[in-house]
Amino acid sequence: AALSLVGVLLVFTASVVPWDGLPPLSPELKGYTYSGYSSILTMPLGLLVGGALFSEAMWQRVWAIEERRAMARAAWTAGFAVAAVVFFFGFVGFLAVWSGKATAETNMNLYFFAIFNDSPIASLTNLPGYLSMLCACIMSAGAADSMQNAIAATVGSSLLRGRPLWTTRACVVLCNAALLLVACASVPVLSLFLTSNLAATCLMPSVMMSLIPGTCVRAAVTEGSLMLGAVGGVGGLSAYGIYKAGGGLGAGGAVAWLWYEYAYDCFLVALGGAAVGVVVGVTVGLLLRSCSPGNAGADADYAAEFWAGSHGMRSGRPRKTELK
């Protein structure tokens, strides 16, 4: 259904763009700007972490598929389809700016809708505009559903394990209520996607290391290194936001996580901070593993397994590092 809507919008777009009256491209429209250069990193990275690595839709299909070759073929097909749709929406917004239909008065979140209007406020006054809004609602609903499922599943599997079913249902209602409050806060949707992509980037190094084939690297990435990687990414990006804002925890957090746009330096800081945290966590784990304090008591044994895993510990419990 979504691809059908995109196909219909493609026909409408081709009919409303004044192809003969487009002015010459300026350096800004060519992308020779800070935002243009930033998109070379932030767009692929945002799609990787937000649309694939931390999307339950992809992992559900990975676990359900039986043949590795079919999984690879489906992954390549889905990757090309996502890239084509993302390019379409971005290019239509670019055409709106290039043709002059989107101006400085147009909200940057509504550039795509401006191509179907003669007014820079990008109001919905015709069928293509309504179809565009329908397509945007489908994509936003999918993203919100993924976030709600992730929050509810995490809380339910960790804090509500063994509890009655009604507690999990209540958790789902509370998660939806929290998302409703966020929706009423008048935060631009691009800023919400930015926040989720930055948060996923903070977890990317440890998750990517755990996916490397072989047991050595997977054994090194334990619960402690995962948590320290996340803390390093979040803490590093928040500190960078405070620096860019000139001081103040609230202002710095807002700049880093909401209002600083898709800037390459923010993503690099989040990625670098997370990588440093993972390296520190792995180093601590290796040191504890070499000491092997398995006989130092239950608390010490738990702390050692948190940082070093059960490999090499005297407790003798095997650690599953290979997916069956």
Total strands: the figure is 0
Average pLDDT, all residues = 76
Span of the ends, CA to CA: 35 Å
Net shape: globular
- Major β-sheet profile: none
Question: How would you characterize the overall build of this protein?
Answer:
With 324 residues, this protein is mainly alpha-helical. It contains 14 helices and no strands. It has helices at residues 2-16, 27-30, 34-53, 56-64, 68-99, 111-114, 127-158, 165-183, 189-210, 215-220, 223-245, 249-259, 264-291, 298-308. The longest helix has 32 residues, at 68-99. It starts with a helix and ends in a 16-residue tail after the last helix.
Brief summary of the model shown:
By secondary structure, the chain is mainly α. It contains 14 helices and no strands.
Per-chain topology:
Elements: H1 2-16, H2 27-30, H3 34-53, H4 56-64, H5 68-99, H6 111-114, H7 127-158, H8 165-183, H9 189-210, H10 215-220, H11 223-245, H12 249-259, H13 264-291, H14 298-308
Helix pairs in contact: 1-7, 3-9, 7-8, 9-11, 9-13, 11-12, 11-13, 13-14
Keyword list:
single chain, 324 residues, mainly alpha
